[in-house]
User: What shape does this take?
Amino acid sequence: MSYDRYLRGEPVIVTAALTGGVHGKETNPNVPETPAEIGRAAAEAEAAGAAVVHLHAREDNGERAFSTERFQAVTEAVRERTDDVIIQHSTGGTAAPTDLRHEPLRTDPPPEMASLDMGPLNRQTTLTSENTRATIDSLYDEMAERGIKPELEVFNDGHLNEVYGLLDRRDLGEPVYATLIFGTGTLTRPRPRNLLNAVDNLPEGALFNTLGFGPHQLPLTTMGILLGGHVRVGLEDNVYYRRGELATSNAQLVHRTVELAESLEREVATPAQARAILGL
Amino acid sequence: MTCPFLDYRRESEDRAFETPRAYCTAAETFVQPMRADVCNDRYDLVHDVDCEIYAAHADERDDAADAARSGE
Assistant: This one.
């Protein structure tokens, strides 16, 4: 029962998704894009209470980048400016070839964690991020080889079946860590009942992270804290602080989440505690 | 071939950036990074298939190409 984790007072891990790759400064000028900006944002997020930073890389003009070289620049900028934060690289990439999506795993040192999208999702009018089982297995195998903990990104309930499928095909090790994602389009509809349902359908012993896009970030992460889960906030997922008011930074969103967790009597995990919880 | 409506600009009427960014002259707005991959026909993306903005403005594409060539 995940709620027992809340009752036992287990610390909540706050992940800050700093930049993403879908939108950028054209949407909110405070989205960090360059390695230096991402490094500074990571330091501010860590100081505000984030134990994990979820990273994407970009070109100088803000466009998506997948190369090991660009991820190396970002991860070095983050390591230079942070104390102990856990680095998680994205392997997502709508329309990008699978070979390119392996490159974020090949930095030196490798990230401690990396995201693993658990199935297809639609984008815009004609785009689909396919995430076939072959792609998932291929990315997972390289993560296992490099000692990288996968963060299983569950964009809809069908992807929960894919988590079970991956567990049948591969020995993931405990604990399984899945991010339950809510939003528009192919994502699970962002409704409180659907978060409860998704939590109920996780594999035995799995830990969950809660991700709500846009206006659903605040309510669903609050639920995640109460349900004994972990939470992800940041400008990748939500560019607003409140209705009609752009967020000024990733740290602003992290700070609010930390205040909420503390008000709900849930300790916020340090990076060291997060490593222990996640088995890193 | 990139989209004829694609331009790289530092400024629009209400925005300014240090580095030139992808700008859609059909929608008259800076485009999001993932959409810029469509504008540039990167990976397997093709603007005349994958962009609904291009489709809606396709009959203006020759004018856009002429304007781009003349530097307007």
